[in-house]
Amino acid sequence: AQRVTQPEKLLSVFKGAPVELKCNYSYSGSPELFWYVQYSRQRLQLLLRHISRESIKGFTADLNKGETSFHLKKPFAQEEDSAMYYCALSGHRSGAGSYQLTFGKGTKLSVIP
Amino acid sequence: NAGVTQTPKFQVLKTGQSMTLQCAQDMNHEYMSWYRQDPGMGLRLIHYSVGAGITDQGEVPNGYNVSRSTTEDFPLRLLSAAPSQTSVYFCASSTGVNEQFFGPGTRLTVL
């Protein structure tokens, strides 16, 4: 079974401080990991995916297969980063042979001015 | 492109009523999914479809039906609404393992 764990429900940091949102996963194969962001009352949107190794809005995330982690990091938090962040894993779902996303429960990031 | 659209945006139902949440996408995506979002629970997969005529159950399918008669549309039917189905419902589409595009959501309250 595939599982995504985000241990922090809420993370508060001061503006300019570093941010790390934790994500651990459980999956027997080779997963694809994503971070999605949801700003207040907006739809979810993709922030980044591990396979592209991009830096989006200053955020980066490295897949650590040994620790089964995909933590999201940003060196200097901005007020506009306040949002709900979801880590997600795309893995094979048996039956229909399709790949579906399994989400963590999310971490609410609050950046204090 | 409109992307993924959902109607209605808000809905209030009484226990036992039925209704259909509409979802449409204009990106010719094969994969479509329905999720519910509840505080502290994240997003949970209700049903999904890998193409027209093919649907399957997700993590929390009870009380919901889906059909996929066209590539564009993927409606979610609540057969007999219950207060436990009060939630925000998101539809999403993708081309497979790639990025999922989400709709704006439907906020449903069951009294």
Number of strands of chain A: 11
Uncertain residue ranges of chain A = none
Main sheet record of chain B: 7 strands, mixed
Helix content of chain B: under 10%
Biggest chain pair interface: A-B, 25 and 24 residues
Give the assembly state of these chains: heterodimer
Provide an overview of this structure.
- The complex is a heterodimer of chains A (113) and B (111).
- Chain A has 113 residues and is mainly β.
- Chain A is 0% helix and 48% strand.
- In chain A, strands 2, 5, 6, 9, 10 and 11 form a 6-stranded mixed beta sheet that branches. A 3-stranded antiparallel beta sheet of chain A has the order 3-8-7, with no helix packed on it. A two-stranded antiparallel ribbon of chain A has the order 1-4.
- In chain A, 35% of the residues are buried.
- The mean pLDDT of chain A is 89.
- By secondary structure, chain B is mostly beta strands.
- Chain B is built from no helices and 11 strands.
- In chain B, strand 9 (87-94) and strand 10 form a beta hairpin.
- The A-B interface holds A 6, 9, 32, 34, 42-46, 49, 86, 90, 93, 95-106 and B 31, 33, 35, 40-45, 48, 50, 54, 56, 58, 90, 92, 96-97, 99-100, 102-105.
Write the layout of secondary structure elements.
The complex is a heterodimer of chains A (113) and B (111).
Chain A: E1 3-5, E2 10-14, E3 19-21, E4 24-26, E5 32-38, E6 45-49, E7 60-61, E8 72-74, E9 83-93, E10 98-103, E11 107-112
Parallel strand pairs in A: 2-11
Antiparallel strand pairs in A: 1-4, 3-8, 5-6, 5-9, 7-8, 9-10, 9-11
Chain B: E1 4-7, E2 10-13, E3 19-25, E4 31-38, E5 42-51, E6 54-57, E7 64-66, E8 76-78, E9 87-94, E10 101-102, E11 106-110
Parallel strand pairs in B: 2-11
Antiparallel strand pairs in B: 1-3, 3-8, 4-5, 4-9, 5-6, 7-8, 9-10, 9-11
